[in-house]
Amino acid sequence: MPADRSQAPGPPTISEVAAEAGVGRATAARTLGGYGYVSPELRERVLSAAEKLGYRANALARSMSTGVSHTLGVIVADIGNPFFAGVVRGICDTSRARGFDTIVLSTYENLEEEIAATNVLIDKRVDGVIIASAAVGRGEVAHIKAAMDRVPVVLVDRAVAALDLDTVVIDNRDAAREAVEMLITAGHRRIGFVWGPPVAKPPATRRELLAQASRNLWTDGERLRGYLDALDDARIPFDPELVMAGRKTEERATAEVARMLAIPDRITAVFCTETDAVTGALRALRAAGLSYPRDIALIGFDDSAWAAVMEPPLTMIAQPVHELGAKAAQVLLDTLEGAEPGRETHTLRSRLIVRASVSAPPAS
Amino acid sequence: MPADRSQAPGPPTISEVAAEAGVGRATAARTLGGYGYVSPELRERVLSAAEKLGYRANALARSMSTGVSHTLGVIVADIGNPFFAGVVRGICDTSRARGFDTIVLSTYENLEEEIAATNVLIDKRVDGVIIASAAVGRGEVAHIKAAMDRVPVVLVDRAVAALDLDTVVIDNRDAAREAVEMLITAGHRRIGFVWGPPVAKPPATRRELLAQASRNLWTDGERLRGYLDALDDARIPFDPELVMAGRKTEERATAEVARMLAIPDRITAVFCTETDAVTGALRALRAAGLSYPRDIALIGFDDSAWAAVMEPPLTMIAQPVHELGAKAAQVLLDTLEGAEPGRETHTLRSRLIVRASVSAPPAS
User: Fold this and answer.
1) Domain B172-319 bears CATH identifier 3.40.50.2300
2) Cβ neighbours of A88 in B, within 8 Å
3) pLDDT at position A42, please?
4) Which of A34, B109, B181, B264 has its CA 20 to 30 A from that of A126?
5) What residue stretches are annotated with the HTH lacI-type domain (chains A, B) (predicted)?
6) CATH class name, domain A5-65
7) Bridge partners of B192?
8) Going edge to edge, which strands form the sheet with A269-272?
């Protein structure tokens, strides 16, 4: 039954809108309040009725009830990676201590999901955003720039060349260099790099490899540069055959390490840049009947409880994951509380945890 | 400079409110729009000015621009646990395929954080909520009931006795029973249970143990019941000395397995209910100079890439983590799309992945 507005003394109410639309009051309230689910058809009817009656909600009252959201939004590339789970923990602990809640979205390395996630956070009116972005090129950062127009944004884990804003990362290049130097000091010269840029065609030259790396994630590129730094310092010639090509999956790492073990002048050491690369490499060693550190040396990212209980325990790079998240939250919260937004890159130091997966290469 | 409203032709604008408050237009827009951070003092000034001028935002326009949020909210006990990361992935994949975004909050097993997280999700107007709750007793569920008054809620991973609503879990009791049966079939009768209820004083009797379990997480209690089921079926007497007591940490698991290895009639097998319990147990074995499966058998939750590359590889229970999340999202989305909200418990089956960490006990 349409509401008769001719007798109404004040502005239309939600009940009147509901009656005009022929829906329940709860449905009208949800539609007009913007919370909860309402089917598109009913929503349309409520909005038409509201327009017809000239309904206006009291936004001021709502703003006073919800207030400042005191919520940080976090976008990570893959919450299933224990590295990012640790970073999120650092963000949550710091923001909680300063009175902010934290909501997290995971993009699974998909740029379109990242754009959608950014929109969700702005739509949900978070006070600031921390992103570990999958964006690389200048053409992929429009969503981050749009977010920056609304709220402060801090990058975590991954620098993005096209963006000039506060960034909190670890010393990927130095960490990789130190690990590969340790392998070289132990006597290794044939050192596999797992994994490289995710390309279909393996790079034939060092220049091509670096060009591919620069079109991919900053983190991966830095780790590759650290590997090359260590080779250069020791005057070990670069061999493209020792760099993994293809998609960055555990299965692929297994296949590529198997390939590097099968070539005539085989690898005697392997450097892995991710946990899945480490477990992939270990599968290849077992399949080839090889043991570490006797037959092959191994160092990888990231240290974990498992790496410590392997027999022998693995020498691993430990990233300061909690500190990384805590620092990103601190930089963001300082900005929210009045500090000038910076354009600084904060670099935290990782640590090489020396255990027992590196010894001299087998006598050939 | 206060705005002079006497000449104003229409309703007051944001710019007029800003002028009245003596703040910038952006600050007024953020305050009145309810997004972004504004200091409490400036907010107060803007709201006073808005009230004085009779400012009303057009909520209808906002409702049309933001629309239904098409966002699911997820609260997990610990996003740092790969189990929950896998569940979240299942939720995200399913909700994405059906046009919904997913935002996640992690409570780190803290009930107060869970209450805050629930409020955040309602405040952010998600369309539905999935919770792996830390709540146990009737007195701990008021926040979930309050959420249920606003949006559909589905429980995942953990049933809560005081709540009668759609719940998606795995067959914890059967999974534990099957694993312990495998140990018994291999000849073990002294089987450690790591970990039990997190209590200061170890339980002295079976009844006390079960009473403590019922005051703790449903999942842990179910796994304990499965352990006891298997012992009962084999007529193996229950020995409270073989149940871990104390906080559920890797360090504590190490200390408790060391204790169980040091008693005269020592354990010959250990059943671990969490990944951290497994790595804790493995540390204790190494410290005691024992190898599995020769000196001791081991089965644990949850299977992982690491468990598969251990030498020997570990026999583990694989929970259907992705399916668990996907099912919870499906049940919630079906409700949002008009299905009657159920009060059903959906139980998914786990799998025992048999590898090489179980053999007969050492001859005594």
Assistant:
1) yes
2) 79-80, 106
3) 84
4) B109
5) 12-66
6) mainly alpha
7) B270
8) A191-194, A269-272, A297-301, A315-318, A351-353
Residue B246 has pLDDT above 80, yes or no: yes
- ipTM score of complex: 0.80
A61 in contact with chain B, both atoms CB, cutoff 8 A: no
- Other C-beta atoms lying within 10 Å of the C-beta of residue A207: 9
Query: Which of A34, A106, A279 is closest, CB to CB, to B62?
Result: A34
- Among the CATH numbers 3.50.20.10, 3.40.50.2300, 3.40.1160.10, 3.30.499.10, which is that of A70-169+321-348? 3.40.50.2300
Q: Look up residue A125 and give its two tokens.
A: 């009116």
CB B102 within 8 A of CB B74: yes
Residue B349 to residues B173, B218, B323, Cα–Cα distance (Å): 11, 17, 10
Q: A3 pLDDT exceeds 90?
A: no
Mean pLDDT confidence for A341-348: 92
Sheet strands (E) in chain A: 71-76, 101-106, 128-131, 153-156, 167-170, 191-194, 269-272, 297-301, 315-318, 345-348, 351-353
Nearest residue in B to A122, CA atom: B35
Please give, rounded to a whole number of angstroms, the shortest distance from the CA of B92 to a CA of chain A: 8
Where are chain B's structural domains?
5-65, 67-169+321-348, 172-319
Is residue B218 reached through a cis peptide bond, with omega within 30 degrees of 0 on the bond before it? no
Give the pLDDT band (50/70/90) at residue A198.
confident
- Asked whether the beta carbons of A345 and A158 are under 8 A apart, the reply is no
Greater confidence (A318 vs B198) lies with: A318
The alpha carbon dihedral of B210, B214, B215, B218 has a sign of: positive
CB contact set of B263 (below 8 Å; sequence gap of 6+) = B241
| Tokens of residue A113, six digits | 């999901």
**Amino acid at the residue A38:** V
Which backbone phi and psi does A298 adopt, to 5 degrees? -150, 135
- Is the pLDDT at A96 greater than 60? The verdict is yes
Q: Answer whether B67-169+321-348 and B172-319 agree in fold.
A: yes
- Report residue A8's pLDDT band, with 50, 70 and 90 as the boundaries: very low
Task: For B67-169+321-348, give the CATH class.
Answer: alpha beta
